[in-house]
Structure formats: structure tokens, C-alpha cells
Amino acid sequence: MNIRDYLHPDEIRYFTARSNWRAGQMVLANWLSIWLVFYIASIWTNPLGILLAVVLLSGRQLGLAVIMHDCGHNTFFTSPVVNRLVGQWLAARPIFSDLTLFARSHLEHHRAAGTADDPDLANYEKYPVSRASFRRKLLRDISGQTGFKLMSYNFLSALGIFKAEKRDAARPYVGMILAQLILYILLALTLGGWLYLLWFGSLLTSYMLVIRVRQVAEHGAVPKLMDKDPRQHARTIVPGWLERALFAPNYVNYHLEHHFMASIPCYRLPELHRLLKARGAYSGTRIFDSYLEVVRHAVTDTASGHQTHN
Predict the structure, then answer these.
(1) Could you point out which of 10, 60, 86, 90 has its C-alpha 20 to 30 Å from the C-alpha of 135?
(2) What phi, psi does 236 have (nearest 5°)?
(3) Domain count for the chain
(4) Is 309 a residue whose pLDDT tops 60?
(5) 254 pairs with which residues across the strands?
(6) Inter-residue contact 111 to 202 (CB < 8 Å)
(7) By residue range, what is the domain housing residue 77?
């Protein structure tokens, strides 16, 4: 599919236009909601409140990942410098990521999506999987096994700063740890330093689960993974408000539209979706109504045998 089959040049210019106002609002809203979760946990400090905070923070962490993603495409703010600064220090590093490392791999994902060269293929190529396989994956996520493995890699990589031959490669990981220290200090000066444990605990557990569901939703068990047409290898979900809060902040659910044209900022994707739908771009394409529906589609007892051992 070519997006120009459905949009006029003036419409393409409209949809690819960046808005500092809308981008700034999104960044502010994300961090205000994060601080609201911290505040509620600080005044409602009991096991249920802490569990709820850990779960809610995972959705907010995904929100930061979406901002990092758009800044990595250089589509969020009008200024490349602001995209780099905000994407790095207010989005990527607080969730133990690095804008440059992410963008390098992610832009290759867009170039190679629908082919065997897609660097992200391992995240979703084996779907559909069996229920037993998916349960094992979720157990590893929610128990912290997946997160611990990732964090161990991050901290070990940061130690390379003490070795001259590894110093350049270690700097992004040192930056991630520095961002955590800054977040801890801000919490210690306001609501209480202990609240940082909720942030880190969410990154280790529920955020790993949210990321896995998002990966499945975007490219898992699609009609034809090895096809360059985004309608075949990507998926859009239009969920209710509760799922949006956890799995689809900042319009990340409009992934099919994003693959149509990656230069469109995330805050314009809902409008693009409505227009493409009205013009028949989704004729024959299934648009899912919930993430639960996608999981039921991608997890089945009829999954092939080699997929049950992941």
C-alpha cells in the first residue's frame, strides 16, 4: 500500500506537521500522571495501594516509551535538538533506555518490516503460541525474571565506563543510571524517596508484561508477517479507556497507521485512522476492539508444536 493512494499532498503535509504545543502537553500530562500515582501511593500506603501503583506506573512508563519513540523518529517536536533532549532525558533514560540506541534499531525495523531482515522479528514471529507457552512468558515477566535479565545487562554494561576500551559503549547505560538517581532525588525531596522502589519494581515486572502484550498486539499473529503491506504485517487496536491507560497511552495503538507513514506524529494518528477508514483503506482488514481480543487471537491451543517451547 502507498499512503499517497489515499491522501492528497496537502493532507500529507497536514498530517506530518509537528506541533510543539501538542507535544509539550503530552510530555507534561505523562509526568503529571506519574507524579499523581506517586502521590496516591504516598497517602494510601497499603498493599493494595502499592500494587495498584506498580500496575499504573507500567502504563505511564509505556507512555514515556511512546514519547521516546516519536522523538527517535524526530517527529514529536519541530526542533531536532528538543526531540533529542526530551526524548533522552524525559522519556528514554527514566525507563532504562537510550534514544540513540533505540532509534538506530527501530528505524531499521521500519525499513525492513515485512521481511526476514526485521531486527524485531524475534519478538513476535512465533505467534500464535499455545496458552501454556504464553503463561510461561507472562510468569517470567510478572515474577521479574525478564526485567532482572535486562537490568543486569544495563548495569554490567555501565561498569564498562571504568575500562578505556569500553567507555564509549558504556556511556548510554551510565546515563540511564544517572536518570534513576535524579528521579530518586526528586522523589526524596517531595513525596518520599521510598516511592522510587515502586518505579523500579514496575520496570522489573508489570512493565515487562505490558511491553510483551504491546509487541504481540502490533505484529503478532498478523495476516502475513512477510509482506511489505502494513495491513498484512501490522495491526491497529481501538480499545476502551481502561486498556488505553495501561496498554495504549499516547495513541500507540494506531500502529498500522504508523507503519503507513512513520513521519506522522503520534498525536495525529487517531485523525488519520478515521480518514483512512472513511476512504476504504481498511477494507478487508480486521481492526481489533481490545487487547484482550488480540491476545485471544494470538494465543491458542491449536498453535503449532514448535511454538510451545518458548
Answers:
(1) 60
(2) -115, 140
(3) 1
(4) no
(5) 236
(6) no
(7) 3-307
